[in-house]
Automatic annotation (TrEMBL):
GO molecular function, one term: transaminase activity
Top-level division of the source organism's lineage: Bacteria
Protein name: Acetylornithine aminotransferase
InterPro entries noted in UniProt: Aminotrans_3 (IPR005814), Aminotrans_3_PPA_site (IPR049704), Class-III_PLP-dep_AT (IPR050103), PyrdxlP-dep_Trfase (IPR015424), PyrdxlP-dep_Trfase_major (IPR015421), PyrdxlP-dep_Trfase_small (IPR015422)
This protein's UniProt keywords: Aminotransferase, Pyridoxal phosphate, Transferase
Family: Belongs to the class-III pyridoxal-phosphate-dependent aminotransferase family.
Length: 375
Protein backbone atom coordinates (compact mmCIF):
# COMPACT_ATOMS: atom_id res chain seq x y z
CA UNK A 1 0.00 0.00 0.00
CA UNK A 2 1.30 3.47 -0.80
CA UNK A 3 0.78 6.67 1.15
CA UNK A 4 -1.77 9.17 -0.18
CA UNK A 5 0.68 11.62 -1.64
CA UNK A 6 -0.43 15.02 -0.32
CA UNK A 7 2.78 16.34 1.24
CA UNK A 8 5.88 17.47 -0.69
CA UNK A 9 8.58 15.92 1.52
CA UNK A 10 12.15 16.89 2.34
CA UNK A 11 14.39 13.84 2.13
CA UNK A 12 15.22 13.75 5.86
CA UNK A 13 14.13 11.08 8.34
CA UNK A 14 14.23 12.26 11.95
CA UNK A 15 14.44 9.41 14.44
CA UNK A 16 15.25 11.10 17.75
CA UNK A 17 15.15 14.62 19.17
CA UNK A 18 16.22 16.50 22.25
CA UNK A 19 15.19 20.05 23.20
CA UNK A 20 15.90 22.23 20.12
CA UNK A 21 17.70 19.50 18.16
CA UNK A 22 16.41 16.78 15.86
CA UNK A 23 18.60 13.82 14.76
CA UNK A 24 18.10 11.88 11.54
CA UNK A 25 18.62 8.19 10.75
CA UNK A 26 22.25 8.89 9.78
CA UNK A 27 22.98 10.63 13.08
CA UNK A 28 23.05 14.17 11.63
CA UNK A 29 21.95 16.95 13.99
CA UNK A 30 19.45 19.65 12.92
CA UNK A 31 18.64 22.86 14.78
CA UNK A 32 14.85 23.09 14.94
CA UNK A 33 13.70 26.68 14.35
CA UNK A 34 10.40 25.37 12.97
CA UNK A 35 9.17 23.38 15.99
CA UNK A 36 7.42 20.86 13.74
CA UNK A 37 5.15 23.75 12.60
CA UNK A 38 4.86 25.68 15.90
CA UNK A 39 3.99 22.51 17.80
CA UNK A 40 7.05 21.94 19.98
CA UNK A 41 6.62 24.33 22.89
CA UNK A 42 8.69 22.94 25.80
CA UNK A 43 11.35 21.26 23.64
CA UNK A 44 11.59 17.79 22.15
CA UNK A 45 11.50 14.88 24.62
CA UNK A 46 11.41 17.16 27.68
CA UNK A 47 11.99 14.91 30.74
CA UNK A 48 8.80 16.09 32.54
CA UNK A 49 6.78 15.41 29.40
CA UNK A 50 8.28 11.96 28.86
CA UNK A 51 7.74 11.06 32.52
CA UNK A 52 4.12 12.30 32.65
CA UNK A 53 3.07 10.47 29.50
CA UNK A 54 5.01 7.28 30.30
CA UNK A 55 3.62 7.04 33.83
CA UNK A 56 0.09 7.76 32.62
CA UNK A 57 0.13 5.16 29.83
CA UNK A 58 1.38 2.56 32.30
CA UNK A 59 -1.61 3.34 34.55
CA UNK A 60 -4.49 4.16 32.16
CA UNK A 61 -4.05 5.28 28.56
CA UNK A 62 -7.68 5.82 27.63
CA UNK A 63 -11.23 5.62 28.75
CA UNK A 64 -14.27 7.31 27.25
CA UNK A 65 -15.86 10.62 28.21
CA UNK A 66 -18.61 8.71 30.02
CA UNK A 67 -16.59 8.47 33.25
CA UNK A 68 -14.96 10.92 35.67
CA UNK A 69 -11.54 12.06 34.45
CA UNK A 70 -9.84 14.12 37.17
CA UNK A 71 -7.00 14.96 34.73
CA UNK A 72 -9.42 17.07 32.67
CA UNK A 73 -10.49 18.94 35.80
CA UNK A 74 -6.85 19.49 36.73
CA UNK A 75 -6.06 20.71 33.20
CA UNK A 76 -8.95 23.20 33.34
CA UNK A 77 -7.68 24.49 36.68
CA UNK A 78 -4.07 24.79 35.47
CA UNK A 79 -5.21 26.54 32.28
CA UNK A 80 -7.17 29.07 34.29
CA UNK A 81 -4.16 29.65 36.53
CA UNK A 82 -1.59 30.12 33.75
CA UNK A 83 -3.81 32.12 31.37
CA UNK A 84 -5.72 34.29 33.83
CA UNK A 85 -8.87 33.56 31.80
CA UNK A 86 -11.00 33.21 34.91
CA UNK A 87 -14.25 31.27 34.96
CA UNK A 88 -14.02 30.12 31.32
CA UNK A 89 -15.11 26.52 30.65
CA UNK A 90 -12.92 23.96 28.86
CA UNK A 91 -13.94 21.58 26.08
CA UNK A 92 -11.20 19.25 24.87
CA UNK A 93 -10.70 17.76 21.40
CA UNK A 94 -7.79 16.48 19.30
CA UNK A 95 -6.60 19.09 16.80
CA UNK A 96 -6.73 22.70 15.74
CA UNK A 97 -9.34 22.23 13.02
CA UNK A 98 -11.53 20.36 15.46
CA UNK A 99 -11.18 23.14 18.03
CA UNK A 100 -12.37 25.73 15.48
CA UNK A 101 -15.10 23.39 14.23
CA UNK A 102 -16.46 23.11 17.76
CA UNK A 103 -16.05 26.86 18.35
CA UNK A 104 -18.06 27.72 15.23
CA UNK A 105 -20.70 25.10 15.92
CA UNK A 106 -21.10 26.34 19.49
CA UNK A 107 -21.41 29.95 18.25
CA UNK A 108 -24.17 28.85 15.89
CA UNK A 109 -26.02 26.90 18.61
CA UNK A 110 -25.69 29.82 21.02
CA UNK A 111 -26.90 32.58 18.66
CA UNK A 112 -29.16 30.46 16.39
CA UNK A 113 -27.45 32.14 13.42
CA UNK A 114 -25.37 30.60 10.64
CA UNK A 115 -23.05 32.97 8.77
CA UNK A 116 -19.41 33.57 9.73
CA UNK A 117 -17.11 36.55 9.31
CA UNK A 118 -13.44 35.65 8.75
CA UNK A 119 -10.50 37.63 7.38
CA UNK A 120 -8.43 37.78 4.21
CA UNK A 121 -5.44 35.42 4.31
CA UNK A 122 -6.88 33.45 7.23
CA UNK A 123 -6.21 29.77 7.97
CA UNK A 124 -8.44 27.94 10.44
CA UNK A 125 -8.05 24.26 9.46
CA UNK A 126 -9.15 21.78 6.80
CA UNK A 127 -12.48 20.44 8.06
CA UNK A 128 -16.01 21.59 7.32
CA UNK A 129 -16.74 25.08 8.79
CA UNK A 130 -13.05 25.61 9.63
CA UNK A 131 -11.94 25.23 6.01
CA UNK A 132 -14.87 27.30 4.76
CA UNK A 133 -13.58 30.07 7.08
CA UNK A 134 -10.11 29.71 5.55
CA UNK A 135 -9.22 32.18 2.79
CA UNK A 136 -7.80 29.65 0.34
CA UNK A 137 -10.24 28.42 -2.34
CA UNK A 138 -7.77 25.66 -3.36
CA UNK A 139 -8.47 23.69 -0.17
CA UNK A 140 -12.25 24.32 0.00
CA UNK A 141 -14.09 21.37 -1.60
CA UNK A 142 -17.61 21.83 -3.04
CA UNK A 143 -19.05 20.05 0.02
CA UNK A 144 -17.52 22.75 2.30
CA UNK A 145 -18.58 25.69 0.14
CA UNK A 146 -22.18 25.61 1.39
CA UNK A 147 -21.07 27.34 4.60
CA UNK A 148 -21.61 31.08 4.15
CA UNK A 149 -18.46 32.99 5.10
CA UNK A 150 -17.80 36.68 4.53
CA UNK A 151 -14.08 37.49 4.17
CA UNK A 152 -13.12 41.01 5.19
CA UNK A 153 -9.93 43.06 5.56
CA UNK A 154 -8.24 43.76 8.90
CA UNK A 155 -8.97 47.29 10.19
CA UNK A 156 -12.20 47.65 8.20
CA UNK A 157 -14.70 47.92 11.07
CA UNK A 158 -17.25 49.65 8.83
CA UNK A 159 -17.52 46.54 6.61
CA UNK A 160 -17.71 44.29 9.68
CA UNK A 161 -20.64 46.33 11.02
CA UNK A 162 -22.36 46.32 7.63
CA UNK A 163 -22.07 42.50 7.49
CA UNK A 164 -23.45 42.15 11.01
CA UNK A 165 -26.50 44.32 10.36
CA UNK A 166 -28.49 41.49 8.73
CA UNK A 167 -28.40 39.77 12.12
CA UNK A 168 -27.42 36.39 10.64
CA UNK A 169 -23.72 36.14 11.67
CA UNK A 170 -23.03 33.67 14.49
CA UNK A 171 -19.30 34.31 14.82
CA UNK A 172 -16.34 36.43 13.89
CA UNK A 173 -13.26 34.21 13.82
CA UNK A 174 -9.77 35.71 13.77
CA UNK A 175 -6.21 34.42 14.23
CA UNK A 176 -4.75 36.92 16.68
CA UNK A 177 -1.55 36.73 14.64
CA UNK A 178 -1.95 35.05 11.26
CA UNK A 179 0.20 31.94 10.83
CA UNK A 180 0.57 30.57 7.32
CA UNK A 181 -1.02 33.79 5.95
CA UNK A 182 2.19 35.64 6.84
CA UNK A 183 2.22 36.89 10.48
CA UNK A 184 -0.04 39.91 10.09
CA UNK A 185 -1.80 41.17 13.21
CA UNK A 186 -4.62 43.69 13.45
CA UNK A 187 -4.44 46.73 15.75
CA UNK A 188 -5.76 46.92 19.31
CA UNK A 189 -8.37 49.43 18.08
CA UNK A 190 -9.60 46.84 15.59
CA UNK A 191 -9.77 44.02 18.17
CA UNK A 192 -11.62 46.20 20.63
CA UNK A 193 -13.94 47.36 17.85
CA UNK A 194 -14.73 43.73 16.98
CA UNK A 195 -15.48 42.98 20.62
CA UNK A 196 -17.88 45.93 20.85
CA UNK A 197 -19.65 45.04 17.59
CA UNK A 198 -20.01 41.40 18.66
CA UNK A 199 -21.76 42.49 21.86
CA UNK A 200 -24.00 44.89 19.96
CA UNK A 201 -25.12 42.32 17.36
CA UNK A 202 -25.20 39.15 19.50
CA UNK A 203 -22.32 37.54 17.62
CA UNK A 204 -19.53 35.51 19.23
CA UNK A 205 -15.90 36.58 18.95
CA UNK A 206 -13.60 33.57 18.43
CA UNK A 207 -9.86 34.12 18.70
CA UNK A 208 -7.89 31.36 17.00
CA UNK A 209 -4.84 30.93 19.24
CA UNK A 210 -3.93 27.55 17.78
CA UNK A 211 -0.55 28.75 16.57
CA UNK A 212 0.06 31.97 18.51
CA UNK A 213 -1.23 30.78 21.90
CA UNK A 214 0.18 28.67 24.73
CA UNK A 215 3.03 31.06 25.55
CA UNK A 216 4.51 31.41 22.08
CA UNK A 217 4.36 35.22 22.01
CA UNK A 218 5.52 35.68 25.60
CA UNK A 219 1.91 36.24 26.73
CA UNK A 220 -0.05 33.04 27.35
CA UNK A 221 -2.55 34.09 24.68
CA UNK A 222 -1.61 36.64 22.02
CA UNK A 223 -5.02 38.40 22.26
CA UNK A 224 -4.21 39.41 25.85
CA UNK A 225 -2.05 42.25 24.55
CA UNK A 226 -5.21 43.81 23.10
CA UNK A 227 -7.23 43.84 26.33
CA UNK A 228 -10.23 41.95 24.95
CA UNK A 229 -12.39 39.13 26.36
CA UNK A 230 -13.23 36.72 23.52
CA UNK A 231 -16.28 34.48 23.81
CA UNK A 232 -14.28 31.46 22.62
CA UNK A 233 -10.52 30.84 22.44
CA UNK A 234 -9.30 27.94 20.31
CA UNK A 235 -6.03 26.14 21.13
CA UNK A 236 -3.94 23.19 19.86
CA UNK A 237 -0.31 22.90 18.59
CA UNK A 238 1.87 23.95 21.57
CA UNK A 239 -0.76 22.66 23.99
CA UNK A 240 0.53 19.10 23.72
CA UNK A 241 4.15 19.61 22.57
CA UNK A 242 3.42 17.06 19.82
CA UNK A 243 0.75 14.96 21.51
CA UNK A 244 -2.47 15.53 19.51
CA UNK A 245 -4.65 17.67 21.75
CA UNK A 246 -6.81 20.72 21.12
CA UNK A 247 -9.47 22.59 22.99
CA UNK A 248 -11.67 25.62 23.33
CA UNK A 249 -12.09 27.95 26.28
CA UNK A 250 -15.70 29.07 26.51
CA UNK A 251 -16.86 32.27 28.20
CA UNK A 252 -19.05 31.73 31.30
CA UNK A 253 -22.00 33.44 29.56
CA UNK A 254 -22.31 30.42 27.23
CA UNK A 255 -24.11 27.49 28.75
CA UNK A 256 -23.45 23.81 28.20
CA UNK A 257 -26.10 21.13 27.83
CA UNK A 258 -25.67 17.37 27.51
CA UNK A 259 -24.78 16.31 23.98
CA UNK A 260 -24.19 19.86 22.66
CA UNK A 261 -20.58 18.90 21.81
CA UNK A 262 -18.81 15.57 22.12
CA UNK A 263 -15.86 13.42 21.07
CA UNK A 264 -14.47 9.94 21.65
CA UNK A 265 -10.79 10.74 22.01
CA UNK A 266 -10.87 14.39 23.10
CA UNK A 267 -9.51 14.97 26.60
CA UNK A 268 -8.21 11.42 26.99
CA UNK A 269 -5.87 10.63 29.85
CA UNK A 270 -2.68 10.75 27.80
CA UNK A 271 -3.57 14.06 26.15
CA UNK A 272 -4.25 15.61 29.56
CA UNK A 273 -0.97 14.22 30.94
CA UNK A 274 0.89 15.75 27.98
CA UNK A 275 -0.74 19.16 28.31
CA UNK A 276 -0.28 19.25 32.09
CA UNK A 277 3.44 18.60 31.56
CA UNK A 278 3.54 21.49 29.07
CA UNK A 279 1.91 23.96 31.48
CA UNK A 280 4.08 22.83 34.40
CA UNK A 281 7.25 23.28 32.33
CA UNK A 282 6.25 26.66 30.86
CA UNK A 283 5.86 27.91 34.43
CA UNK A 284 8.82 26.17 36.05
CA UNK A 285 11.32 27.02 33.31
CA UNK A 286 9.93 30.57 32.78
CA UNK A 287 9.45 29.88 29.08
CA UNK A 288 7.21 32.88 28.39
CA UNK A 289 9.90 35.18 29.78
CA UNK A 290 12.46 33.30 27.68
CA UNK A 291 10.29 33.79 24.56
CA UNK A 292 10.29 37.55 25.15
CA UNK A 293 14.03 37.77 25.82
CA UNK A 294 15.07 35.65 22.88
CA UNK A 295 12.66 37.51 20.59
CA UNK A 296 14.29 40.82 21.56
CA UNK A 297 17.74 39.34 20.85
CA UNK A 298 16.52 37.93 17.53
CA UNK A 299 15.18 41.37 16.48
CA UNK A 300 18.55 42.98 17.32
CA UNK A 301 20.43 40.45 15.19
CA UNK A 302 17.94 40.74 12.33
CA UNK A 303 18.35 44.53 12.28
CA UNK A 304 21.99 44.10 11.23
CA UNK A 305 21.10 42.24 8.02
CA UNK A 306 20.31 44.67 5.18
CA UNK A 307 18.64 42.05 2.95
CA UNK A 308 15.84 41.65 5.53
CA UNK A 309 13.13 44.16 4.57
CA UNK A 310 10.77 43.50 7.53
CA UNK A 311 10.68 41.40 10.70
CA UNK A 312 7.09 40.31 11.34
CA UNK A 313 5.32 38.72 14.32
CA UNK A 314 6.21 38.77 17.98
CA UNK A 315 7.63 36.50 20.65
CA UNK A 316 8.81 33.26 19.07
CA UNK A 317 6.35 33.52 16.19
CA UNK A 318 8.51 35.47 13.79
CA UNK A 319 8.92 36.03 10.08
CA UNK A 320 11.81 37.47 8.11
CA UNK A 321 10.70 39.13 4.90
CA UNK A 322 13.12 39.46 1.98
CA UNK A 323 12.66 41.03 -1.42
CA UNK A 324 13.09 37.64 -3.12
CA UNK A 325 11.41 34.20 -2.77
CA UNK A 326 12.96 32.26 0.13
CA UNK A 327 12.40 28.68 -1.12
CA UNK A 328 16.04 28.20 -2.19
CA UNK A 329 17.38 29.87 0.97
CA UNK A 330 15.20 27.63 3.15
CA UNK A 331 16.49 24.53 1.34
CA UNK A 332 20.09 25.65 1.79
CA UNK A 333 19.51 26.32 5.49
CA UNK A 334 18.26 22.75 5.87
CA UNK A 335 20.69 20.85 3.68
CA UNK A 336 23.88 22.92 4.03
CA UNK A 337 23.50 24.25 7.58
CA UNK A 338 21.11 21.71 9.14
CA UNK A 339 18.63 24.32 10.32
CA UNK A 340 14.85 23.82 9.98
CA UNK A 341 12.77 26.95 9.30
CA UNK A 342 9.25 27.48 7.90
CA UNK A 343 7.65 29.09 4.86
CA UNK A 344 4.39 31.04 4.42
CA UNK A 345 1.77 31.92 1.79
CA UNK A 346 3.92 35.02 1.19
CA UNK A 347 6.77 33.39 -0.74
CA UNK A 348 9.28 36.02 0.48
CA UNK A 349 8.74 35.20 4.15
CA UNK A 350 10.92 32.81 6.17
CA UNK A 351 9.17 31.72 9.36
CA UNK A 352 10.84 31.10 12.73
CA UNK A 353 8.80 29.00 15.19
CA UNK A 354 11.29 27.38 17.56
CA UNK A 355 10.68 25.56 20.83
CA UNK A 356 10.21 28.15 23.62
CA UNK A 357 13.38 26.78 25.27
CA UNK A 358 15.65 28.22 22.58
CA UNK A 359 18.75 30.15 23.71
CA UNK A 360 20.84 33.02 22.31
CA UNK A 361 23.59 30.69 21.07
CA UNK A 362 21.08 28.95 18.79
CA UNK A 363 20.00 32.29 17.35
CA UNK A 364 23.68 33.09 16.71
CA UNK A 365 24.10 29.83 14.78
CA UNK A 366 21.10 30.75 12.64
CA UNK A 367 22.29 34.28 11.82
CA UNK A 368 25.80 33.06 10.97
CA UNK A 369 24.32 30.57 8.51
CA UNK A 370 21.95 33.20 7.12
CA UNK A 371 24.77 35.68 6.57
CA UNK A 372 26.80 33.03 4.71
CA UNK A 373 23.84 32.26 2.45
CA UNK A 374 23.14 35.91 1.74
CA UNK A 375 26.75 36.90 1.03
C1 LIG B 1 -4.08 29.36 13.14
C2 LIG B 1 -4.38 27.93 12.86
N1 LIG B 1 -5.65 27.48 13.02
C3 LIG B 1 -5.97 26.19 12.80
C4 LIG B 1 -5.02 25.28 12.38
C5 LIG B 1 -5.42 23.84 12.14
O1 LIG B 1 -4.83 23.01 13.07
P1 LIG B 1 -4.71 21.42 12.78
O2 LIG B 1 -3.72 21.26 11.68
O3 LIG B 1 -4.25 20.86 14.10
O4 LIG B 1 -6.07 20.94 12.41
C6 LIG B 1 -3.70 25.70 12.18
C7 LIG B 1 -2.66 24.75 11.70
O5 LIG B 1 -1.66 25.10 11.13
C8 LIG B 1 -3.37 27.06 12.43
O6 LIG B 1 -2.13 27.51 12.24
Amino acid sequence: MSLFNVYPLFDITPVTANDVYVYDDKGAEYLDLYGGHAVISIGHSHPTYVKNISEQVAKLGFYSNAIQNPLQVELASQLENISGCNDYQLFLCNSGAEANENALKLASFHTSKQKVIAFKNSFHGRTSAAVASTDNPKIVAPINAQQEVIFLEFEDLASVEKALQNNDVCAIIIETIQGIGGLDEASTTFYQGLEKLCKQYNTLLITDEIQCGFGRTGDFFAFQKHGITPHIISMAKGMGNGFPVGGILIHPSIQASYGLLGTTFGGNHLACAASLAVIKTIKKDHLMENAQQIAAYFMEQAASIPQITTVKGRGLMLGLEFDFPIAELRKNLIFKHHIFTGSAKNSNLLRILPPLTIQKQHIDVFFEALKKELS
